[in-house]
């Protein structure tokens, strides 16, 4: 496994939650972190701003650049990318983490909310990738990582929140298309998705309790694995956090739980349940390996 020391990582939506966790994990290697998010001042109910995360990044051992960015606006992304290039000399990694969610049915979804999800999730991911790619193409090990799900076309995952699924799958379609488009040029484009709910402000707002969630650390540890792999050998993958960690030898995921009480809530878009996954790794661990 490689290191992110000296690499410049541009993270959208990095002021809290999964984006912040990925930033701090990379900072421990001595990476340069660009925190591109809207939160410049403290929210009365939500902790964290781009500036507090920048301070945390420095304390963790990395360098930081905090940029006020609403990824719906091209000029704001371009300005932040230029600041990053001026300060750090280029961009090696883009993490498309910023996302909007509304778990509403068709009749309950206002077009304002539809446009917000589409412009941040699908359009914002495409736009950030487009603007960062000229610099990623100059990197030795360039990666784009989208926090988005596998493209699972079961009606089950559309019927309750069609607009959200369409917007989120837009991020995953960027993985499908861009991984193929830039494979020969060595830019890795992958997706990462959690098997269970992750304890963030978004899950709390949607009525999920902490005991049903895993910590953000499981996503940042999985992201680190992806971002340190050779970009020419690992691209076009739709990774699930615990399955990816299992591929690196992790078999006990208890340390990622918020609480040992209650059952973990499954995230959307996955066919293999947590019970299925747990049973699968138990079978594989108990099966003697061939000596041939």
From TrEMBL:
Keyword Phosphoprotein appears in the UniProt entry: no
Compartments where found: Mitochondrion; Peroxisome
Entry GO CC: mitochondrion; peroxisome
Single Gene Ontology MF annotation: oxidoreductase activity
Keyword Oxidoreductase on entry: yes
Domain of life: Eukaryota
Record protein name field: Hydroxysteroid dehydrogenase-like protein 2
This protein's UniProt keywords: Mitochondrion, NADP, Oxidoreductase, Peroxisome
Family from the record: Belongs to the short-chain dehydrogenases/reductases (SDR) family.
InterPro entries: HSDL2 (IPR051935), NAD(P)-bd_dom_sf (IPR036291), SDR_fam (IPR002347)
CDD domains for this protein: HSDL2_SDR_c
A Pfam family it matches: adh_short
Record organism: Elysia crispata
Gene3D superfamilies, sorted: NAD(P)-binding Rossmann-like Domain (3.40.50.720)
